Amino acid sequence: MKSAAFLAALAAILPAYVAGQAQTWAQCGGIGFTGPTTCVAGSVCTKQNDYYSQCIPGSATTPTSAPTSAPTSQPSQPSSTSSAPSGPSSTPTPSANNPWTGYQIYLSPYYANEVAAAAKAITDPTLAAKAASVANIPNFTWLDSVSKIADLKTYLADASALGKSSGQKQLLQIVVYDLPDRDCAAKASNGEFSIADNGLANYQNYIDQIVAAVKQFPDVRVVAVIEPDSLANLVTNLNVQKCANAKSTYLTAVNYALKQLSSVGVYQYMDAGHAGWLGWPANLTPAAQLFAQVYSDAGKSPFIKGLATNVANYNALSAASPDPITQGDPNYDEIHYINALAPALQSAGFPATFIVDQGRSGQQNHRQQWGDWCNIKGAGFGTRPTTNTGSSLIDSIVWVKPGGESDGTSNSSSPRFDSTCSLSDATQPAPEAGTWFQAYFETLVSKANPPL
Ligand SMILES: *[C@@H]1O[C@H](CO)[C@@H](O)[C@H](O)[C@H]1NC(C)=O
Ligand SMILES: CC(=O)N[C@H]1CO[C@H](CO)[C@@H](O)[C@@H]1O
């Protein structure tokens, strides 16, 4: 943090020494970045995270993304003890049914701005119109750092006001994604907290802040995906030292998240990888046992609805025929995986239902290996979010990953470079994980299936 702030300060006082200006969508700052820190006319250098600032179209006076508080050093006071707002104290009552029923999914106006800016940058008018229509398709807001909780507060207040003015109850979709030593088996999405440096306490503080925000708006329903990849890594990747070291912290942290979020009525789906990961027959039983144990340890709250699959991945819910790369796995798509996992969960004591990410699953059979996950070439937006899922085990088809945000950088000198992002089926050059990837967004639009 200190060195980043120092470099930023240095860059700010030495603009004359920086040659050239970065192009729209290019990197313009971040830890270790040595290129130009100002942008060409028409775009503004905007900090995305400590690793990445990007030239976003627009002028300084028209922000294209939600206001985020500048990341600061870790808060030293847990907000739960000092500044938790005194919200309503009644215990929320869970609905027995599908959490989406009777609610309208809140669409962030900030996303609309981001998509509008992206659409404007497209010269082909037909493609631009299709791109603009993506703003009306709800995805999830990733709370991938403490600073993003500012967005959550904005959205909750906005959704609450909208619910009151329109008479249509609003539902907000979030991803809880800030575990210490996050992404233990890969590198592209390493997070802000480390176990060695007070990570568990920092994480609990992060959860406390989410809980305090949600508690203030009991009229807004919140649905959360809990910690993509984390528990799945504990099923299959304990041979990776970082995952083995993280195991007990992950379990304690996820337990804390589940219990606290249940206490304010957040409907939760724990991330369960995808068919090509936990769907292999040898992984199904250990996975079911782990998820059932975590559910039980968290008190079997009815707000812990079940599991989320295929988050940020590319698998079809129901493939026309098995992709050759799935050979050997009878669960070659998400519906086979879910149908195989659900009974195992049930017999382990977890009556789980599912949500399935189809945001980037429109095209199939374009990966070289099933394990490839980074900015896959030829992917298109997939089936639109719907509760009309064709399976009583699936509460909703969703778009969890915001299509257009990068999975990871292809720059091999970045501290978060993962070699998966430079494989031949990965789109390159790619910016840092979570930041806008215009060329990739345009492909998702043009290859959308069903078409936009
Ligand atoms: C790659 O990353 C390094 C370190 O962050 C940076 O200095 C360099 O400019 C980047 N290269 C490109 C092509 O973006
Ligand atoms: C609810 C919502 O619209 N969430 C996100 C969708 O994706 C964009 C980026 O592509 C985010 O900025 C939104 O917050």
UniProtKB/TrEMBL annotation:
<keyword id="KW-0378">Hydrolase</keyword>
<keyword id="KW-0326">Glycosidase</keyword>
<dbReference type="InterPro" id="IPR016288">
    <property type="entry name" value="Beta_cellobiohydrolase"/>
</dbReference>
<dbReference type="GO" id="GO:0004553">
    <property type="term" value="F:hydrolase activity, hydrolyzing O-glycosyl compounds"/>
</dbReference>
<feature type="compositionally biased region" description="Polar residues">
    <location>
        <begin position="407"/>
        <end position="427"/>
    </location>
</feature>
<feature type="active site" description="Proton acceptor">
    <location>
        <position position="407"/>
    </location>
</feature>
<feature type="binding site">
    <location>
        <position position="144"/>
    </location>
    <ligand>
        <name>substrate</name>
    </ligand>
</feature>
<dbReference type="GO" id="GO:0030245">
    <property type="term" value="P:cellulose catabolic process"/>
</dbReference>
<feature type="binding site">
    <location>
        <position position="401"/>
    </location>
    <ligand>
        <name>substrate</name>
    </ligand>
</feature>
<keyword id="KW-0732">Signal</keyword>
<protein>
    <recommendedName>
        <fullName>Glucanase</fullName>
        <ecNumber>3.2.1.-</ecNumber>
    </recommendedName>
</protein>
<feature type="binding site">
    <location>
        <position position="313"/>
    </location>
    <ligand>
        <name>substrate</name>
    </ligand>
</feature>
<dbReference type="InterPro" id="IPR001524">
    <property type="entry name" value="Glyco_hydro_6_CS"/>
</dbReference>
<feature type="binding site">
    <location>
        <position position="277"/>
    </location>
    <ligand>
        <name>substrate</name>
    </ligand>
</feature>
<keyword id="KW-1015">Disulfide bond</keyword>
<keyword id="KW-0624">Polysaccharide degradation</keyword>
<feature type="domain" description="CBM1">
    <location>
        <begin position="20"/>
        <end position="56"/>
    </location>
</feature>
<feature type="binding site">
    <location>
        <position position="405"/>
    </location>
    <ligand>
        <name>substrate</name>
    </ligand>
</feature>
<dbReference type="GO" id="GO:0005576">
    <property type="term" value="C:extracellular region"/>
</dbReference>
<feature type="binding site">
    <location>
        <position position="274"/>
    </location>
    <ligand>
        <name>substrate</name>
    </ligand>
</feature>
<keyword id="KW-0136">Cellulose degradation</keyword>
<comment type="similarity">
    <text>Belongs to the glycosyl hydrolase family 6.</text>
</comment>
<feature type="signal peptide">
    <location>
        <begin position="1"/>
        <end position="20"/>
    </location>
</feature>
<dbReference type="Pfam" id="PF00734">
    <property type="entry name" value="CBM_1"/>
</dbReference>
<feature type="binding site">
    <location>
        <position position="373"/>
    </location>
    <ligand>
        <name>substrate</name>
    </ligand>
</feature>
<feature type="active site" description="Proton donor">
    <location>
        <position position="229"/>
    </location>
</feature>
<dbReference type="InterPro" id="IPR035971">
    <property type="entry name" value="CBD_sf"/>
</dbReference>
<dbReference type="InterPro" id="IPR036434">
    <property type="entry name" value="Beta_cellobiohydrolase_sf"/>
</dbReference>
<dbReference type="Pfam" id="PF01341">
    <property type="entry name" value="Glyco_hydro_6"/>
</dbReference>
<feature type="region of interest" description="Disordered">
    <location>
        <begin position="404"/>
        <end position="428"/>
    </location>
</feature>
<dbReference type="InterPro" id="IPR000254">
    <property type="entry name" value="CBD"/>
</dbReference>
<feature type="binding site">
    <location>
        <position position="142"/>
    </location>
    <ligand>
        <name>substrate</name>
    </ligand>
</feature>
<keyword id="KW-0119">Carbohydrate metabolism</keyword>
<feature type="region of interest" description="Disordered">
    <location>
        <begin position="63"/>
        <end position="96"/>
    </location>
</feature>
<feature type="active site">
    <location>
        <position position="183"/>
    </location>
</feature>
<dbReference type="GO" id="GO:0030248">
    <property type="term" value="F:cellulose binding"/>
</dbReference>
